[in-house]
Amino acid sequence: MKRVLLVVLLLAANLTATPASESAGLKPFGRGSWKTLLQAHAGRPTLVYFWGVTCGPCKVELPQLGAFMTQNPAVDVVTIDADLVPNADQPALAMLRGAGLSAADNWVFTDGFAERLRYEIDPAWQGDIPRTLLIAPDGGIVTIEGVAELATLQEWSAKHVPAK
Fold this sequence. Notes:
redox-active center, Thioredoxin_CS, signal, Thioredoxin-like_sf, TlpA family protein disulfide reductase
């Protein structure tokens, strides 16, 4: 009887468990996630920021992105931890929280073959971070390699956010 109860409890735990990344506030980014992300934000101005915990410029830029998100609520902000060095979710979440980005749509690369994920996003992308994609409501994409100037983001937002 004890064995049956133990088996039932283990099965129930496995049925209700979610991946650690998802339950912690980071969505797992694997094959097909780019298409899902684009569909979820279709028709809305969207800023997608690729960053990493080990990226020095990202550490400086994240708080600026948090300020941009606060000042531009009509722009969807998506962050994707695309660090080449695998890391635990907690440091990434702490950095996002400290930068005021907890409410953003936050993802983390979870496929061990990161090149495949980058190719799905942009076949020309070699993996350099930070990298920002500005996606207009019509689907047009502007790519910014390296640090994105806040003034550039504000200018893009003003151009693509419908007037009230």
